[in-house]
Amino acid sequence: MPGHAPSETDPGPRPTLASIRRTKIKIPPQEGLAGGPSQSSPNLQNTLSSNSPDSPTPPPPHRTQSDPTNQTNPKHNPKHNPYIGLQNKGKSPQRPSSSSSSSSSRSKMSHSDRGQHVPRGGGGRGRRGGPPSRFSFRNRSGHYDSNTSGVRAEWKSWDKVCLRLKNVPNNATTSDIWSHFADYGNLVSVELFEAYNGARDGSGRIRFSPPPTKDWNDNKTIKIQGREVQVSVSLEQDRPAPRIQAPSGRTYPPVITLGMNALQFGVLAHENKMMPLRTISNNWKGRFFLAADLKFKCFEIAFACHIKDPRREDNTIRHHSRIGEMEHTVEYKTQIPFTHLKKVVFIDVDEHSWALLIHLPTPPIFYKKTDIAGSHSNGKNSWNERDAWTRAVDITYDTTWFKDDPVSLPRANQFVDIGRWTTYRLVFAKSTLEGWNLMKLALQDFNIAVDHTTSKDFPTVPAVAANLWELLEPAKPCTTGLGANLALLVSTKDVHLPYDVRYQLEVCISQGIFNEVSITAEFLGKLAELSSGRTRRRDRAKDLLTYISQPRVGSRAEDKGKLDEKRIYEPMSLFNDKKALSYYPELSIPEHCQWVRKVVVTPTTMHLSSPMPEPSNRVLRQFVNYEDRFLRVQFTDELTKGRIFPSPGSVQENALFNRVHRTLQNGIRIGGRHFEYLATGNSQFRENGAYFFCPTDFLTCDNIRGWMGDVTHIRVVAKYAARLGQCFSTTRVPKASPIGQTIKQIEDINNGRWCFTDGVGKIAPSRARFLMQNLNMNKNLKHVPSVFQFRLGGSKGVLVEWPDVPFNEVHLRPSQNKFIAATKNLEVIKTSRFSNATLNRQTIIILSCLGVPDSVFEDMMRNQVASYARAMEDPQEAMKLLSKFVDQNGVTTTIAQMVADGFMKTEEPFAMAILQVWHAWSMRLLREKARLVVEQGAFVFGCVDETRTLRGHYESPKSESDDPRDPSKLPQIFLQVPKTRDKPGEGEYAVVTGICLLGRNPSLHPGDIRVVEAVDVPALRHLRDVVVFPAVGDRDIPSMCSGGDLDGDDYFVIWDPQLIPAEWNYPPMSHDGVTPKQLKRDVKVSDLISFFVRYMKNDSLSTIAHAHLAKCDALHDGPKDPQCIELAHLHSNAVDYPKTGEEAHLSPWLRPRRFPHFMEKPPHKTYRSHKILGKLYDSVAKIEFKPKLDGAFDERILRRYKLDSETLKTMRMVKRQHDKAVRQIMNQHDIETEFEVWSTFVLSRPRVGSEYKRQEKMEPVVADHRDRFRNACIKVAGSREPSALYRVVAAAYQVTWEEVQRAQEKLPQSDDASTEPSLTGEKMPLISFPWIFEHELGRMATSQTEFELDEIPKLATLMDGEGDDDDDEFERLVGAGLIEGEEAATIIDLASTSMLVASKVEETSSTDKAQITETKEEEPYEGEMVELSEDESEDGLEALAKLMKN
Q: Are 1046 and 795 in contact (CB under 8 A)?
């Protein structure tokens, strides 16, 4: 499909809608219907409606499917061609191309080419001399012959004609071929084939649709770059399009098309009223139709519009250009996936016409048609008519008018605001009802409801000017008389909304809860009045808007079946909603979190989110007083599509990247504030995200970047951006230290070429213990972690605990120091932790080529699938498997403890749901990623042997007598991991010894996986959960493993004998990285912006990885094939792209033509793989996760305590807050259920970014959420002591049980006694609240103390109004200390104000940069002093003595 973007499941091209109308049948006109088709056609199932647009003129005649040779065929007779009426007079008919023969020709496809064909060699097999399509004809000489008997007479009745070309010069371009053959008819595609090595083979194919209007010669003389050559031309046989089978079993043509009379864009003014804001009538100057593409399950609306100069209607608009000079007619189209629709509305307008109303919650994707002659690319050997369709981000008179404006929700000078006007009314003539009846039947078969009404019951209403923005900013002149009058009226009342209220209002507008046309001056005045009584903690106007914008699970009963279930048509009604008016702020958040506002910028609009608590970083902590001036911005395609896919070498998506560049360059305007681009975090970069900041008079983006560090010495733009990105890493800063830390610089260990200590430093054991005591992370660890991944000023990497480091010292190496920064705090990202090693598709295919038998992997897969099945039935098996298969967040050990505590035996509903989501997650990864867990394996940080005891890697001359599997010549490692136990938490460790496999993800080169020897070194036994590499040898081991280092990379170590390959240590990849370009001047912000956009457009990492996987499966030598080796080199370059700024160019000959079935690509590009990955994929069935709450809550907890009503009432309030926060996390991270949130076993794919590290990224989010609500419950209890805390935890469990009981009482009862209703989906209340205390619940369940209740408690009767009076609830939570009261908030405000007054900006004139210096300056490295934690009261000497204890 034109502009169709690749994805993990569908990266290839799609035919356009009109191009696959191969089975279109034209019905002869009947009398009585104004020349239209009869409504009583006897063969509705085999009929397609007329494609002619509705008009007073009669539609063209039609033919029936039973008469394919009908000589009045409109497809080759211009007088009867229904597409002729859509073209400018005198032009040849234009129809999108067909790709029906692309499967037979197996056109080479690029993941990043966005659906463009890539040529192949010899008859479509990619090799010269391969056999032609089986549908082609050859004469005795072996050539295609268009004069074959019966063929010449038939081709004029075909839907398309394909011609094979021979003797095409290698210097010919697709433009050359198109220019010579375009005169024959509507030429829709050109392919110039390649041989296996990527060289042109002199053959090609061209395609016409409809068939050519004149005959061709079998030998045609054409001129290529001034030289005449003779090209042979022969005919390929037609192949009919297959019909589409619906779920009902009925079959339909691939595309059903209806010509339109008019298209109206607008908004819903009411549930059954539309407000058209622009009407476009069929002017016969372009395509104008609605098509239902049943093959690709989407609508296509095509239209042409003449865009007039807006100054003709509005003389207040000023521009220096001449009026009307840019007026033009442009063809557009939009594609609407069926999954984006719930229903459409058929409207009977009058005796001549009917309408179809389509309402969308978010904008669809739009395309604009460009000049065909200019759509060819000299660098490509294929062209398709779809290349002439480019993405459209607006429909406007002249885009240059607002190229310098900031991006905002209101868009000026839009002919059609395609981002905001998402209700479409399509008007048709009654003559098209025959086709509509078929289309309606098909839509219903594809689960799209069709409502029927009349124009009386669903009318259109007059357009109303949206003067909201003029009312909010009256200083800005209005462009309409009505808006000017209203602005003048309101300005006398001085309507002013604080920023946070305006921001929340724009959140509601961007999410479709309000539309601008429904917001009145009265509503804004009421908000201002409500906000005037604001306090530090509460602004009722903001709270009201937050209430209606919070995510909901499911639909309200009163909203069921509505076109838009979120829309509020009467905003003034909110002021009568008691619940909305009394809504209160959320609970306080942990000190290491901050409220962050997020904005998603799409091609046509913006989507704002309410502030969310997120783990903080260095910059947000430093400028916490400006918290509301930061924005986290992410660039995506429209929400129905997801990420913006890279498109190197293509211009079709340029409008998207231009919008990104404009946003970064001009900034974003929200709530009256202008936000500017600040910088990009390193993890944000790959997800197309950035931070923006709204400057003040004394704090600018330059000031903040200056404070972040001195990077002026860096002249490589990519590296400059990466160094700034270090400051945005999610980190935690330890609390109080009565003793300072000393920073000492030590030398790197290197041998002149290779650095053995790249990224690794040392830390004293005393300092490591102090960090863990004050970081409030990994509290369940029984040992101090051996390794800390950190940031310290401009330094990064890991710090390893070494006994020889003097007290409280931190040792850094030059390889860790990247730049100089003002801050000297030691910030921790994460600590070392054990998890099991896992195999994936890349490692399996490499091990297979190195000699590991396929049966090993098949046995592993079979055993693991069986083990998961047993674990879901047997608690002992579950506990054993969960303890052995430890995930990287350690969640499985927590689940194992829940099983050990008896929750699986009692079938506790939450515990069972967590087991089910773990099972579904594990099985999904087994099937889709071949993620085999290796019991005898570890996935850990890497560090270096500072004792230099371990044997290194040496390049010794090889002789025939040398044993390639001699263990005495292997490099050595040290690894100490937990012993395998059936019960979790034993805490014993063992040293691994023997032959091991070592690698790092991703591994693409056969030399990336190394064979090493694990040995026991007593001097290293203090190091746990980390692999120790040698510090001697000819080359460091980490660099051999996919170019790794020691600054925080994870490595897998496997000591399972059956996975040790027959071939040891294939030569490692010798990769000379790309030399980055250095500027001859300082890096500017504009350079950062340009690089950001260039990276978005040219990043080929995933494309190369997919190509490598496909080639490894297809080629005999797999990863050892030269093509795969080349792809491995390219992949390494692509990984380095964010640091070097040099993109990796994927040559066309390296792009796979077809993909193995386990990659789940479109069927026409897929073959069945019989290699190991195909076998593994086929051996695992899909598992659906559908949680149910049928199990009984555990009475061991329900009976444990007799709880008072006040505690229960307070915990109900806390639960409401908890559930709201969980829904926000689910909404923000595109997660379906709370069980996925709690466990971090997320089943859905992220809309943007890779899912490779999704579990790792979710861990701090979930940890902070738990801390937040654990702290709230501890405050309710008044103590951490079990005697007080356990009662509160039991109350949390009981109120959750009560909520489930009440939900079950509301379920409709079934007449079938054997069928009991169950809580699923949106009917199911959230139940994860008590499980933020999973360890405490386990101790309560297994306690041997007497129960205080003889039976489970009776379901409490809620007091009238409980849960409805949020004002009373707010006061109770303030009283409990869960929300800051006004007094505490005032103290905080005073402290913040004093800090603001004390802060100053020092301008450094020599470097023309600014730094922010706080009154309380930070101590130097050796004197970092912070306060003690709450439970410490020792003086400095006592603390010193305590820290020095072992």
A: no
User: What one-character-per-residue DSSP string does 1236-1267 give?
Assistant: HHHH----SPPSSS-STTHHHHHHHHHHHHHH
**Cβ atoms of 995 and 1011 closer than 8 Å:** yes
What pLDDT does 604 receive? 93
pLDDT at site 549: 87
Place of tokens 């724009």: 506
The string of DSSP letters for 1042-1087 reads TT--SSS-EEEEE--GGGS-SS--PPPP---PPPPP--SS---HHH
Alpha-carbon distance 391 to 156, whole Å?
34
Position 158 scores a pLDDT of: 82
CA dist 801 and 808 (Å) reads: 11
Ranges of H-type helices in 66-191: 102-105, 174-181
Whole-number Å distance between alpha carbons of 1000 and 1252: 13
Q: How far apart are CA 33 and CA 563, in angstroms?
A: 32
Residue 264: CB partners within 8 Å, gap ≥ 6? 274, 276, 278, 279, 280, 424, 425, 426, 427, 460
pLDDT along the chain (1446 residues), means of 10: 39 38 34 34 35 36 33 36 32 37 36 35 35 35 42 72 89 86 88 78 88 82 83 83 84 91 93 92 84 92 88 79 83 91 92 94 92 80 87 87 88 88 94 93 91 93 85 59 46 73 93 90 90 81 89 57 84 88 77 88 93 90 92 91 85 90 95 94 88 94 93 92 92 76 91 91 90 71 86 93 90 93 88 92 95 94 93 91 85 91 92 93 91 93 95 79 81 91 63 95 94 95 95 93 92 95 90 83 94 92 93 94 94 90 87 91 90 93 81 90 90 89 85 90 77 78 87 88 92 92 77 58 81 92 90 75 59 64 42 38 36 33 32 38 43
Q: Radius of gyration (Cα) for the chain, nearest Å?
A: 34
Residues 6+ apart with CB under 8 A from 400: none
Helical spans, DSSP H, in 446-498: 468-472, 481-491
Q: Is 640 helix (H, G, I), strand (E, B) or coil?
A: coil
User: Could you give the CA distance from residue 1092 to residue 371 in angstroms, rounded to a whole number?
Assistant: 29
Of 761, 763, 810, nearest to 784 by C-alpha is 763
Measured between alpha carbons, how far apart are the two ends of the chain, in Å? 67
- Those residues whose C-beta lies under 8 Å from the C-beta of residue 1090, and which sit 6 or more positions away, are 661, 717
Q: How far is 520 from 468, CA to CA, in rounded Å?
A: 7
Residue 83 and residue 51: Cα distance in Å, rounded? 8
pTM exceeds 0.90 = no
pLDDT of res. 1364: 55
Structure-token match 């197996």, residue found: 106
- Structure-token pair, residue 829: 């990202």
Q: Is the peptide bond before 210 cis (omega within 30 degrees of 0)?
A: yes
Write the burial class of residue 1251 (CB in 10 Å: 0-12 exposed, 13-18 middle, 19+ buried). middle
Enter the tokens of residue 398.
């002249």
User: What is the DSSP code (8-state) at residue 122?
Assistant: I
**Other Cβ atoms closer than 10 A to 776:** 16
Question: Does residue 648 have a cis bond before it (omega within 30 degrees)?
Answer: no
Q: Would you say 1327 and 1177 are in contact if contact means Cβ atoms under 8 Å apart? A: no
Match 């969308």 to its residue by tokens: 360
If you ran DSSP here, which 8-state letter would residue 1353 be given?
P
Give 864's DSSP letter: H
Contact by Cβ (8 Å): 445, 248: yes
As a whole number of angstroms, the distance between CA 1153 and CA 369 comes to: 28
- The secondary structure of 61-87 as a DSSP string is P---TT-TT-TT-TTT-GGG-TTGGGS
Tell me what pLDDT residue 959 has.
64
